[in-house]
């Protein structure tokens, strides 16, 4: 599967209707009115941009400008990370150090996930955006918020911080599982 298409699909699912409307408006000079009227999702829009060769895995400046225009810095940083790491530098056989703990947390933390994210100092705005993007999927809300925390912290994102936050929320069983 093409990693760039996967990234675009991920972007599409996190766009609100308002943001999609803004992107369509910004693309009026590049895409015909008829095509823009048929756009119902970010996937549709990205498909047209790919067709017009305005974006590609090695040509992301137009997409970056669009995302900056709608103030989605989170998506801009994901795009930059994709460009920096590329598909070549990300071997599939070496999982991220945080993937296992995140998996354990997602499988064991339930409806109190926001309390955990607040302990990790993730902003309410980011939490609400994640909830809006995944309204009926608790697991995905938690997964995306943990990834958001990871992105925000960068190299300072430590498993020890996750464990401390879990214990601070009295989620000791989950903290024990993460430690193991």
TrEMBL record:
GO terms for molecular function: caspase binding; death receptor binding; protein-macromolecule adaptor activity. Residues 3-81 form the DED domain. It is found in: Cytoplasm. Keywords: Apoptosis, Cytoplasm, Immunity, Innate immunity, Phosphoprotein. Its main location: cytoplasm. Residues 98-180 form the Death domain. SMART domains: DEATH, DED. The keyword Iron-sulfur does not apply. Pfam families: Death, DED. One of its GO terms (cellular component) is CD95 death-inducing signaling complex. PANTHER family: FAS-ASSOCIATED DEATH DOMAIN PROTEIN, FAS-ASSOCIATING DEATH DOMAIN-CONTAINING PROTEIN FADD. This is FAS-associated death domain protein. It comes from Himantopus himantopus. The gene is Fadd.
């Amino acid at each position: 599967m093409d990693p760039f298409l996967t990234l675009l699909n991920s972007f599409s699912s996190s766009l609100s209707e308002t943001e999609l409307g803004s992107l369509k408006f910004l693309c009026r000079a590049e895409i015909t009115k008829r095509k823009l009227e048929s756009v119902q999702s970010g996937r549709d829009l990205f498909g047209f941009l790919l067709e017009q060769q305005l974006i590609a895995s090695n040509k992301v400046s137009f997409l970056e400008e669009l995302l900056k225009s709608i103030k989605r810095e989170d998506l801009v940083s994901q795009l930059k990370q994709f460009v920096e790491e590329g598909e070549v530098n990300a071997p599939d056989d070496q999982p991220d150090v945080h993937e296992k703990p995140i998996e354990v947390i997602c499988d064991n933390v339930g409806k109190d996930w926001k309390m955990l994210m607040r302990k990790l100092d993730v902003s309410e705005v980011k939490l609400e955006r994640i909830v809006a993007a995944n309204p009926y999927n608790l697991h995905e809300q938690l997964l995306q918020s943990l990834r958001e925390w990871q992105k925000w912290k960068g190299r300072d994102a430590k498993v020890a911080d996750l464990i401390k936050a879990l214990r601070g929320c009295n989620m000791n069983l989950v903290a024990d599982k993460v430690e193991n």
